[in-house]
Design a protein that fits this description.
single chain, about 325 residues, alpha+beta, Beta Polymerase, domain 2, Methane Monooxygenase Hydroxylase, Chain G, domain 1, 9 helices, about 60% helix, membrane
């Protein structure tokens, strides 16, 4: 899919048919989403650009994440999208600035792009070049990352309340804590990736105006705040995991204590029964008239005395 946003005298209009498109000078933004080879080739020929391969877009080296030349600028960044199997997954997005036109290449439907389109439609006079659209996309993405971090924080509070109120500890809760640890790690990696790209954009030579540079510096401050927040969430998740494991240890100790008490309670009766169960000839108790009732009474009393000692010492 190809979306072309072109500025005219009164509005910003969207064009989808690139074959009938001819006026490239007033183009603000060319967005390629899941493009075919033919669509990519037509954009490259029409605007005289060359997109990186998907492998190059996913490279993590600094030299691959940000490339600045005299006539174009390339910035690659990772965006998080929801996924049914893994909660969230990372997808690469490539940005290119050339002649005040922004080119974006992505293989997923991203909310930050949709929000940017809405802003362009509602505030057409604000967007005069591709750099402003590029910054708006990053601003929207950082806002979504902040919302995602807030969602994780609320889920942590819910798990913490469940640990306090619910005595039943299960495997699913521990797996949920682990999932949120992985999600927080992914958020931090993506935020740090944007920090690297935006820092490089601030240091760029002549690609952004003073007002746009100020917006980029504000983004860096927001990103630093998000990084601090993710560090705090990591600490909370680690504390929550330790609390969960500690409660499991307490539950296991309680079960072991019950088995230990039961074993000790039956230890004196077992000793008495073992003594009186020996088959020796000279055992006077065997000829006693009340030997059997006395033996039963001794066995019961030995158990009761053991229980009384345990309660007296607060071991039960």
């Amino acid at each position: 899919m190809i979306r072309i946003f072109q500025q005219d005298e009164t509005a910003v209009r969207k064009v989808r048919d690139i074959d009938s498109f001819s006026d490239t000078e007033r183009t603000l933004w060319v967005d390629l989403q899941n493009p075919s080879r033919e669509e990519t080739k037509s954009v490259e020929d029409k605007f005289d650009v060359n997109f990186q391969s998907q492998q190059e877009q996913a490279e993590i080296e600094s030299s691959s994440r940000y490339i600045e030349e005299d006539d174009f600028l390339i910035a690659n960044s990772n965006f998080l999208i929801p996924d049914k199997e893994h909660m969230y997954v990372t997808v690469p997005v490539s940005f290119m600035l050339k002649d005040d036109t922004l080119f974006t290449y992505r293989n997923a439907d991203l909310r930050s792009f949709a929000d940017t389109v809405k802003k362009i439609k509602s505030r057409r006079s604000v967007f005069n070049d591709g750099a402003q659209i590029l910054i708006t996309i990053f601003e929207s993405r950082i806002d979504h990352d902040a919302d995602l971090i807030e969602m994780v924080s609320q889920e942590i509070k819910a798990i913490n309340r469940k640990l306090d109120l619910d005595a039943a500890l299960d495997r699913e809760m521990l797996l949920k804590i682990n999932d949120y640890q992985e999600l927080t790690m992914s958020i931090r990696e993506n935020v740090v990736d944007k920090q690297r790209v935006i820092s490089a954009m601030i240091r760029s030579d002549g690609w952004f105006t003073n007002d746009e540079q100020q917006r980029l510096r504000t983004l860096i401050k927001d990103i630093n705040s998000l990084i601090d927040h993710t560090n705090f969430i990591f600490e909370r998740l680690e504390f929550l995991q330790n609390t969960f494991l500690g409660l499991i240890d307490l539950e296991q100790n309680r079960i072991v204590k019950i088995f230990t008490v039961v074993s000790l309670v039956f230890l004196p009766p077992t000793l008495l029964a073992s003594i009186w169960g020996m088959n020796f000839t000279n055992m006077p108790e065997l000829s006693w008239q009340f030997g059997y009732p006395l033996a039963l009474t001794s066995i019961v009393l030995s158990s009761l005395v053991t229980l009384w000692i345990f309660r007296r010492k607060n071991w039960l």
